[in-house]
Design brief:
This protein has about 150 residues and is an all-alpha fold. The chain is built from five helices and two strands; from the N terminus they run H-H-E-H-H-E-H. The two termini are about 25 Å apart.
Length: about 150
């Protein structure tokens, strides 16, 4: 079950990004209710990702990079870029949802596209991190988050 959790969390964030794309399509075509449903479901999948990721991090640890040593600095730079995007996407996502829920639609419309683009890139880099950690190379040892990122 433990080995399944990274795949499940990656699947959740990928579904979230796909639903954001559908939500964007819906609002561009005047389908306000479909937009709301798609975005609410996208947010739910993002929260599910977060619960799985944090639970695994706290209870089990993080998988360190198991690929070749000469690639590790590039992987680490890519991972840090992904983490920065993910945190930015979360902050913007919360703000975007907040503005929508409070009826501040002018602000919602202004940051919504930026939020979506950052979410797409973050999801893409997240899937790439998963592939590098579990598919392309054998996973490294499970360790603390800081050690998994920096060692």
């Amino acid at each position: 079950m433990v080995d399944f959790l990274p795949l499940l969390s990656t699947f959740c964030i990928l579904v979230s990004a796909i639903l954001v794309a559908f939500g964007w399509y819906f609002i561009k075509n005047g389908r306000k209710e479909a937009h709301k449903k798609a975005m609410a479901t996208a947010a739910s999948f993002a929260v599910l990702f977060f619960i799985i990721y944090i639970s695994r991090t706290l209870l089990i640890g993080n998988t360190s990079f198991g690929g070749p040593d000469h690639i590790k600095p590039y992987y680490t730079s890519f991972l840090i870029f992904h983490i920065f995007l993910a945190l930015t996407g979360v902050a913007l996502g919360i703000l975007t949802i907040f503005f929508a829920r409070k009826g501040r639609l002018k602000k919602h419309r202004k940051i919504g596209p930026w939020t979506a683009v950052i979410w797409f890139i973050s999801a893409t880099t997240g899937v790439s991190v998963y592939l590098m950690l579990y598919v392309i190379w054998e996973p490294g040892p499970v360790t603390s988050m800081i050690d998994a990122i920096l060692k």
